[in-house]
Amino acid sequence: MVLLPIEASDAGWLSDVFKGSSKADKNPRQAASPNNATVAKRAAPAKRVTPAGRATPTGRATLAGPATLAGPAVSPKPRNVRLAALGPVSLSPSAFKPAGPTCDPAKFRIVVDVGHTAESGGANSARNVAEFLYNHRLARRIEQTLKADGFTETRLLLTEGKARHSLVKRVAAANALQANLFLSIHHDSVPDKFLEDWEFEGKKRYYSDRFRGYSVFVSRKNPDFKTSLAFAELVAKEIKAFGLPYAEQYSQPIMGRHRHPLLNKETGVYSYDELVVLRKTRMPAVLLEAGSIINRDEELAMDSRERQDIISTGVTAAVKQFCDRRWAILGPL
Q: CA–CA separation, 302 vs 44, rounded Å?
């Protein structure tokens, strides 16, 4: 075992380290659900729908102002943390300097963006739950896990407003924070042509069990694309290490205008060049589709604490590797 010398420092080395080397439009009818719930030991019950037709969320947070940074909420570390031993992700060894300072987790700032808003909830799940509620809950869990592992400058970003206008506000808020990383959390759906009808709680709903899995997106127009890609690779590999599949459909012609270039066929990293939150942020940026809530089985899995812990643990392990070059060179020590 070889230990490399390190020094406490800020994250200014990150740009130098890596210089060497969406999602379908959602319709109010759309719903996403997970096909494979085997990873979770038990699936939490599906969310109930009130007579007014609105999903009853678990622990909804109050949104305040155009873009709100949620306060700290630290929970115990999840058990059975698995960390994949990785090589230099899709980068040549020359991309890494042989020695130098590592980042200080206490000063390293990650913005965890809650995809969509309460006003524009994104896709509807197979059981008619707004995607925003899934995004908010998982993003909060990721924030808690990162803070519990020492990344105390993690910021949860909640945005108000509708559609594209909210995207502009969240990008402005993220840039103002001068973060080291930007991670936007979403849950997937499918184009309308893949939807089928079914009945849930006596009402007509829409689903598609044809596709499932996570996917990770970056923009080649991000000012630091290479670093964005490196972080995306780490996130994807950590999630895949838990046995979860990635959504392969985005590389297929059947997706039409929702087709995206697949940058890594082993891990499920795609390019989505025109996505505003990836293209306009002034720091490395990644968008994670954690799973498909239009797939009826995967929706139940995404609703479970076990699956949320898997995703949050994988993201935290990826941030650790990104922050400390020894992980990328040697694997976990």
A: 9
Q: For the chain, give every domain's residue range.
A: 14-40+78-330
Among the listed residues 87, 83, 59, 93, the one whose alpha carbon sits nearest the alpha carbon of residue 73: 59
Question: Rounded distance, CA 277 to CA 23, Å?
Answer: 12
pLDDT tens per residue, range 71-107: 444 444 444 434 333 333 444 433 433 333 468 999 9
The whole-angstrom separation of Cα 166 and Cα 314 is 28
C-alpha distance from residue 332 to each of 17, 99, 313 (Å)? 19, 17, 14
Query: Strands 110-114 and 181-188, how do they pair?
Result: parallel
How do strand 203-207 and strand 269-271 relate by DSSP bridges?
A: unpaired
- pLDDT per position as a tens digit, 8-38: 333 333 333 333 344 444 444 443 343 443 3
DSSP for 23-79?
-PPP-TT-----S--TTSSSPPPPPPB-TTS-B--SSPPPP-SSEEEEPP---PPPS
Angle between helices 131-148 and 305-323 (to 10 degrees): 50
What is the maximum span of the chain, computed from C-alpha positions, in angstroms? 63
222 contacts: CB under 8 Å, gap ≥ 6: 228, 278, 279, 281, 284, 285
SS3 212: coil
Instruction: Give the amino acid at 310.
Output: I
In 3D space, the residue among 158, 75, 137 whose CA is nearest the CA of residue 291 turns out to be 137
Predicted confidence (pLDDT) at residue 161 exceeds the cutoff of 80: yes
- Confidence check: pLDDT of 68 > 90: no
Identify the CA nearest to 303 among candidates 33, 107, 102, 122: 33
Please give the class, per CATH, of domain 14-40+78-330: alpha beta
- Burial of 268 per CB tally in 10 Å (0-12, 13-18, 19+): buried
Q: Which helix (H) or strand (E) holds 147?
A: helix 131-148
Residue with tokens 């008619």: 128
Neighbours of 200 (CB within 10 A): 17
Q: Which of 187, 189, 193, 182 is nearest to 254 (CA)?
A: 193
Q: Are 241 and 214 in contact (CB under 8 A)?
A: no
Tokens of 8: 């406490």
